[in-house]
Write a structure and sequence with these properties.
Elements: H1 2-14, E1 23-25, E2 31-33, H2 44-56, E3 69-79, E4 82-91, E5 97-99, E6 104-109, E7 112-113, E8 117-120, E9 129-131, E10 136-144, E11 163-167, E12 175-178, H3 185-188, E13 189-192, E14 196-197
Parallel strand pairs: 8-13
Antiparallel strand pairs: 1-2, 3-4, 4-10, 5-9, 6-7, 6-11, 10-13, 10-14, 11-12
Amino acid sequence: MNRRLIGCGLGLLVLASVTACGERTSGSGSAETLPTSTPPSSTSPSTTVAAANTGAAAPAVKRCDSTVLKGEITPTDAGAGNRYGKFVVTNSSTMPCTLSGYSGFQLENASGAVPTKLERKADPGPVQMTLAPGGKASANLHWGVVPSGNEPVEGPCQPEPSKAAAIPPDETAPLTVPWTLGPVCSGGRIEISAFYAS
């Protein structure tokens, strides 16, 4: 045991440092640990940067869907057998959501679906928007109340709706909104615009 220690000590006297010994004597007589011979990992800095970037990324804003939107249909104008209104949606959540495009729209009553022929109008067309909590967007509606074709001229031209199932753009689940504006003639034909900020 003594010979090995002496040998290691002699090796230190001859050489500046001997890593196999693990310690060397400084000028003050105290022992200090030699640095490890394992090189630092070259992947550590990039991993740290990636983690930092991931942590700094802003959360994605989700699309407005039927779980956060509340809807209503408001009349805006009437004349010469034409009716106009707006389908207004409000972001009822505490987070912003995005909305762009046209709503699906199906008239209904207590018996089920009522004839509806939805026609998209290009003015205004789709525009990407973000609805803040409480923010609103509208889609213009136009329909007729004059019977056409083989629709009856006495009484309602079509079954009277009591509600509409409206599907937000790029979604599949509808939200239900009351319809109190009477029958929609011409087989339930409704012109609808894309949503715009309101």
